[in-house]
Amino acid sequence: MSQATISNTKNGNHIQTKDSKSFTPSDIARIFPAQKKKALELRTSTSKDRITKLKKLRDGIFKYQSEIQKALYSDFHKSAAEVDISEILPSIAEINDAIHNLKTWMRPVHVSTPITLFGATSKLVYEPKGVCLIIAPWNYPFYLAIAPLAAAISAGNTVVIKPSEYTPHTSHVIQDLVKEIFSEEEVAVFDGDVHVSTALLEMPFDHIFFTGSTPVGKVVMEAASKHLTTVTLELGGKSPSIIAEDADLKLAAERIMWGKFLNAGQTCVAPDYLLIPKTKVDAFVNYAKLATEKYFKSKDDQFQTNADFCRIINSRNFARVSGYIDESVKKGAKIAFGGTVNSNDNFISPTILVDVPLNAKIMEDEIFGPLLPIIGYDTLDEAIGIVNSKPKPLALYIFTDSNKTSKYILQRTSAGGSVINDVILHLVNSNLPFGGINHSGHGSYHGHFGFKAFSHERSVLQSPKLSMPTLMYPPYTGFVRFIVNTTTKWFV
């Protein structure tokens, strides 16, 4: 593994990273047609062929486990335990799910055929899309590169991965891991900054899988439209948590604080803001303080020395997130807990803000940091109105002991996914599609849904020598009209 990977610099048309390969437009021009050719070969690959590759990928992850842990600690102080929980374990789970189910997923699906096509048979055949581009983000840089890679391999594609330049150490581990398992004509990793992404987006890929912010997602979608390339966009947005009047406050506080401060809040499905009855704000804050201190075994002024609490990814994001605190306080919000920042270490402590005005910037942007703004409400419909005043979120969390209440909220809101009485865990279930809606994303993946995201669902109809439609060919004689009229009446 390359050891020194600190900065990316642009040198003419070359995108250079210290101690790593320099990628040029000629590299893209060389690898893309090679992958195109290889993709044609892979169309006939069997489930056994693909499972063999998935097993090699899984074995490679275990081999590189300590290197992955070190890389993520170097990139943003992520502890080894959190790396295992949030990066390695879910990657292995995705691969294992594909290994166990791929043979079934690849089988043609036979569907019924209408009486008007009597004698014909119909089926759906899943075929690889071809050459796929995966653009991974920095917040879970390993898992969000490997999980879609596993899905793309399962579907029989060739792949180009563009990891984030914000996590260079992790990008290099991914590069080393992939090189050890695959030839570049099958899977290639392109390191570098936005110029590499821009150059890649100019190529006519057969599918683009992007995880990142909504503004960049729009750029990706625009680039894809020039080639009419299909896209899966895993974006974000402001994912609310609604606590109903009858909710268990202690349970809600423990689960929301875990989800909010995991990865220092840099999670696309982190609870972004909390809506709670005004009369329960103080009690919730007390429970939230206790839960947060228990998780990190730290008091408010000691989080910076805790090994289990990671850092904001870089100084730019530190300035953005810490700025939300300052702007909110100026507009009347109060810091109920936390608020400690240190620019030398890109550190922001777990922070809870109350009395946050709805026009504060923290209530407009996706936070992507360890800040939880709390909004008190008088009626549940008021809370629902706040949610619906914003673009559709990636996730919505509901805390209530009443099925009637949860159903009421679900029917009156829209989100990519929802969890009742917990947070984030819906993405762990590979039997559920994970994805957003409109502003928060297009398409979904995980498990079978990931296989389908990287596959074309091809319809195949096989007609017999003598079929019903042949009886309706011209000339339109009285007999043909009789057949048409009789067939029409069958549908009445």
UniProtKB/TrEMBL annotation:
One of its GO terms (cellular component) is cytoplasm. Keywords: NAD, Oxidoreductase. Transmembrane segments: none annotated. The active site is at residues 234, 268. It comes from the Bacteria. One of its GO terms (biological process) is aldehyde metabolic process. GO terms for molecular function: aldehyde dehydrogenase (NAD+) activity. Residues 1-22 are annotated as: Disordered. Residues 19-460 form the Aldehyde dehydrogenase domain. The keyword Oxidoreductase applies. It holds the Pfam family Aldedh. Residues 1-15 have a biased composition (Polar residues). Belongs to the aldehyde dehydrogenase family. This is Aldehyde dehydrogenase.
